[in-house]
Amino acid sequence: MDRPISPPAGVSLFEWVKRELRGAITRGDFSPDQPFVTQREIVERYGVSTTTAVRALNELVADGLVVRRRGKGTFVAERSAPAATDARLLTFINPGPCGWHETEMLGGLVTASGALGYRLAIERSETVAHEEELLRRAADGGSAGVVLYPRDGSVAADGVERLRRAGVAVVLVDRYLPGLPTDAVIFDDFLVGYDVTSAMLDRGHRAPGVLWSETEVTSVRDRQAGHYRALRERGLPELPERTALRVYDQLEPAARRARLRAMLDSAEPLTALICGNAPTLELVVSDLLEMEAGFPGTLELAAMDQSTPHGVSPLAVASARLPTRELGERAARLIHRRISGDTGPIRHEVLRATVQVAERGPNTLGVIGAAVRA
């Protein structure tokens, strides 16, 4: 087992070591009668601390992948025969939390898969490592197909390959894995970022800020690229301090408001904020209303998706309306075709969103004014 150079970007040393050890087990680098790599060997091979090595081994034991034999050491666990594949079982792995977007997607998936005669098992991944574990279980647990909604920072490529080797069909939804060709049903997120930004530029804004809830997913990166394209086409500058991929919603309230204050007090006047999704928009509104010091003028708000199935998000002057339910339905039909023997080229089915803009007026929603906090 050769030592990798370093962990992938965004992956902790512990997650990296555990992933590499699990991969070695999956590949069959160790047989059940052969001693497994020791704590000391992990430290030397990966250049990590003893604490990290011990934790990795303990978690592999907890996962049932290795066993400790008194007086003999650690060994790969004997593997039971894989469960027989249930041709009518699909597994949906998603990160949660279950907001409107996820509920609509799941509704489409449940309806379409049920109409095709499938039962749907729903699993929620709590962490990147847990997502990997759920994929491993799906490969061993008899599912005919897996619909995967990857987490932010997902490292699911190995797990997807394992599913394929086990003969399990895989379709990704909402985002894709850049380094691994897979079937996927996604939105045209580049166009989402472009159209929402263009709508705000059409309203006279020249340097909108953008706030994100995730950073290591293709949907967000594509939206950022679309945002930049809209600015470039109009000869407007890109202002990284206002648009960089930095997580907003996971910050403490004081840190979120400090970031907003820095944007408001910058030399270039801030007249608009675009949020990567509706939950971030709602949080921004709350933070703006709670800020002690006001700011001159008004801010117009926009979102790159919606929080309800009807029209513009209530807190935005412009928002993208995503065909989220259709995404779930299309994913069910695509995975059914694969299970049924379709061997055509791997493909992405791309759905287009529509951007809706509120009419201007004195009571237009999505406008935050200084007077609110006076």
UniProtKB/TrEMBL annotation:
Q: What is this protein called?
A: LacI family DNA-binding transcriptional regulator
Looking up InterPro entries in the UniProt record yields: LacI/GalR-like_sensor, Peripla_BP_I, Tscrpt_reg_HTH_GntR, WH-like_DNA-bd_sf, WH_DNA-bd_sf
Keyword DNA-binding among record annotations: yes
Q: State the CDD domains in the record.
A: PBP1_LacI_sugar_binding-like (cd06267), WHTH_GntR (cd07377)
Task: Give the HTH gntR-type domain ranges.
Answer: 11-79
Q: Which UniProt keywords apply?
A: DNA-binding, Repressor, Transcription, Transcription regulation
Single GO MF annotation: DNA binding
- UniProt keyword Transcription, yes or no: yes
Source organism's superkingdom? Answer: Bacteria
